[in-house]
Design goal:
The structure is a single chain. It contains 15 helices and 10 strands. The chain has 3 domains: 148 residues, 3-Layer(aba) Sandwich (Glutaredoxin); 119 residues, Nuclear Transport Factor 2, Chain: A (Roll); 121 residues, no CATH class. Helices cover 45% and strands 16% of the residues. α1 packs across α12, α9 crosses α12 and α13 runs antiparallel to α14. The radius of gyration is 24 Å and the shape is elongated. It has 430 residues and is an alpha/beta fold.
């Protein structure tokens, strides 16, 4: 059945409210007692001679990899792998990932021993702190990984690396996931992980990312020239999506994309990327995908992932940018917010942080309510005010202070006008 522009706009508005991505600031610590990250009997002050030997061997293997990368010696890098064809293939793939991502500095620091995963061919496993930087980053990223090692069969040789795996609760570095291709152009990159989108789909995605960046720059001038590279990651599967984030696969079920810092930290200078959830994003129409991407790119280009922003400000502004030129009427774009307003009246407060929790039954409503705040600021005070207010809060000013500086009115006045807007739109739609 064909649908006209109005029907399509209505469907788009409902879809965006349900699946628009989120901005995430995650911790990097592994869950206590995690089996993969649990110290073995050789860890700590009472390590056995065998434990010390494994640690020395592991440190030597890590140092060999780091030195080979720094020297640009691919052959030596691959030779640092264990003496098996799969290990050599993984080492070669890691080299390609580091090269394609234009990694400038890369280091692996031994932290402690851990128990090898059940069924693993590893003789030992080390928890390792990986630190790396890429062109355009203001500061390096740091994340924990686990490295499986095969001990030498000949005295005097170092351990060989079998595989690099994610550490529980820590985001997996893209270079360790062996990216299939990296499409870079004018400060933006689309990183495709093994088995991910086809070349044709990648080309379409790259064009959508370029358009999203242009849309953000049109609303927030200069946001694309701050030197912060824009990276969008296209995983193959939900499991791969979860590994990039360091989360369980069901954490973001139904969410099309997540914008977060690369290493899960909340540092203002931490590098950021947008990670697509293939199970959701692949099913979107081109129009809906563009809205989601523009929403996420707004987060990324304005550094909303560094934390400190009230979620209604972060999400409301991202939707303000993504929906600004969509042509969707407010009563359609805010349908989930207006329905309960007709039944019970407008809410007394702005959406709480809990309302934006993944899986919250009122998630779509919270997005729409937050968007209506910025619609109000735009319609009442002019198109420059939502940006000025957002930048003020992003810069650390309290919401009430930022409002008074940009509108002359405080938070109480904003809430009153926002509630009146909700009531008016609900009646018009009734």
């Amino acid at each position: 059945m064909s649908r006209g522009p109005r029907a399509a706009a209505c469907a788009l508005a409902a879809l965006v409210a349900l699946i628009a991505g989120i901005v995430l600031v995650a911790g990097t610590g592994a869950p206590p007692g995690s089996a993969t990250d649990r110290p073995d009997a050789s860890d700590g002050p009472h390590r056995t001679a065998s434990g010390v030997s494994r640690e020395v061997s592991a440190r030597a293997a890590l140092a060999s990899l780091v030195t080979a990368w720094a020297d640009g010696d691919r052959a030596r890098f691959v030779d640092s792998a264990a003496d098996t064809a799969p290990a050599a293939a993984r080492a070669a793939a890691t080299w390609r990932g580091l090269t394609r991502l234009d990694v400038q500095r890369w280091n692996l620091r031994y932290v402690r021993a851990a128990v090898p995963a059940p069924g693993s061919l590893a003789d030992s496993t080390a928890v390792v702190e990986a630190t790396w930087s890429q062109r355009g980053w203001q500061a390096p990223a740091t994340a924990r990984v686990t490295v499986d090692l095969a001990q030498p069969r000949t005295a005097g040789e170092g351990a060989g690396v079998l595989a690099v795996r994610g550490a529980p609760g820590s985001p997996m570095p893209l270079w360790a996931l062996h990216s299939r291709s990296v499409h870079m152009e004018n400060g933006r990159a689309v990183v495709v992980l093994p088995g991910g989108a086809s070349e044709q789909r990648v080309g379409s995605l790259a064009r959508q990312v370029t358009r999203a960046r242009a849309q953000v720059n049109a609303v927030v001038p200069g946001s694309g020239t701050s030197g912060r590279p824009l990276v969008v990651v296209a995983p193959r599967s939900t499991a791969q999506f979860a590994r990039v984030l360091g989360q369980s696969p069901d954490t973001y079920a139904g969410i099309a994309a997540v914008t977060t810092t690369v290493d899960g930290s909340s540092r203002a200078t931490a590098p950021v990327h947008v990670v697509l959830n293939p199970d959701v994003f692949a099913g979107l129409s081109p129009v809906a995908a563009q809205v989601v991407l523009t929403h996420e790119v707004t987060h990324a280009m304005t550094n909303a992932a560094a934390g400190g922003l009230p979620l209604w400000v972060a999400e409301g502004f991202a939707d303000h940018v993504a929906l600004r030129d969509s042509g969707v009427p407010a009563r359609l774009a805010a349908s989930q917010a207006l329905a309960p307003t007709r039944r019970h009246g407008p809410p007394r407060t702005l959406p709480s942080p809990e309302a934006f929790a993944v899986g919250s039954p009122g998630l779509g409503r919270a997005y729409e309510q937050a968007w209506l705040v910025f619609r109000l600021l735009d319609h009442r005070y002019g198109e420059k005010v939502p940006v000025a207010f957002y930048r003020a809060v992003l810069g650390g000013r309290p919401v009430d202070e930022a409002l008074r500086a940009t509108t002359g009115a405080g938070l109480g006045d904003l809430i009153a006008r926002w509630r009146a807007q909700l009531t008016r739109l609900a009646r018009a739609d009734g």
